[in-house]
Amino acid sequence: MKFNILSICWLVVSSLFCPLANSAGLPDIIDRIRPGVVAVGTIMPLRRPSAQFMGTGFAIGDGRLVISNHHVIPELIDLNRKERLAVFSGRGDQAKVHPARVVKTDPDHDLVVLEISNGPLPAVPLATEETVREGESVAFTGFPIGMVLGLYPVTHRGIISAITPVVIPSNNSRSLTAKQIQRMRNRFEVYQLDGTAYPGNSGSPVYDARSGRVVGVLNSVFVKGTKETVLERPSGISYAIPIKYVHELLKGESNGQKPKALTQ
Fold it and tell me: What are phi and psi of 22, to 5 degrees?
């Protein structure tokens, strides 16, 4: 009986300290992930400021490939004024510019693969193509408001709240938008997170809070176009593209398109 009481007491004490041990591991994971998280945008020597941020991305593989959202890449690049697509690594005044080019795109799942000409960058590990479970703890690191906060990655934590279709059905056909109709033709499931994200977070890696492996790509702006329309009052609900679509894109043939120049 004495042994049972001691065992029970030990279990109670252990349960009190286990959450602290788990949470203590996240700072170490963030330290490993952060060097591979980059800002995505353009650079133009004669523009002030010369750098313009569009979103977030993260390095993978040999460190010369970067994953981001397709909608982050500008449709027009002013080549006549020497504007170039670029990613920005480092922090604050230690930021480095890496000229980039599009090598693969997947507009249906809002994904893009970029290749940088100077590197490599520290690669972020990817999870397998298996679907995560609802309730699992995740974190995402990126640049929530772009250039406003400078090149200082910010991390938010949450859980996988739901696995839901990318399209939310409308009450009637009259209220359907063109974007909703197009997405209904290419329906797929995304991860709903209970974490607040902003436009600059688009392309951020969403990773398992215990292992640090990326399970999805944050896609808040793309999905908010149909679910939430007011950025000034965020609901605390964000969405991520499952990592399996990144694996599929990496395995597929390249369909990258050269950025267009602005007409003068």
Answer: -65, -45
For the domain covering 137-250, report its CATH number: 2.40.10.10
Q: Are strands 137-142 and 84-89 parallel, antiparallel or unpaired?
A: unpaired
Q: E strands of the chain, at which residues?
A: 37-43, 51-60, 65-68, 76-77, 84-89, 96-106, 111-116, 137-142, 154-165, 189-193, 205-208, 214-218, 238-242, 260-261
Please give the chain's pLDDT, 264 residues, in tens.
Answer: 444 544 434 433 333 333 433 444 999 999 999 999 999 999 998 888 888 899 999 999 999 999 999 999 998 888 888 899 999 998 887 889 999 999 999 999 999 999 998 879 999 999 998 779 999 999 999 998 766 667 899 999 999 999 988 854 444 445 445 555 555 566 789 999 988 888 889 999 999 999 999 999 998 744 444 444 434 555 567 899 999 999 999 998 545 444 444 433
Q: How far apart are CA 202 and CA 68, in angstroms?
A: 7
Phi (first) and psi of residue 213, to 5 degrees: -85, 135
- Say how far apart CA 3 and CA 125 lie, in whole Å: 44
Residue owning tokens 């890449």 = 73
Provide the residue ranges of all domains of the chain, joining segments of one domain with +: 137-250
Q: Which pairing describes strands 84-89 and 96-106: parallel, antiparallel, or unpaired?
A: antiparallel
Beta strand 111-116 pairing with 65-68: antiparallel
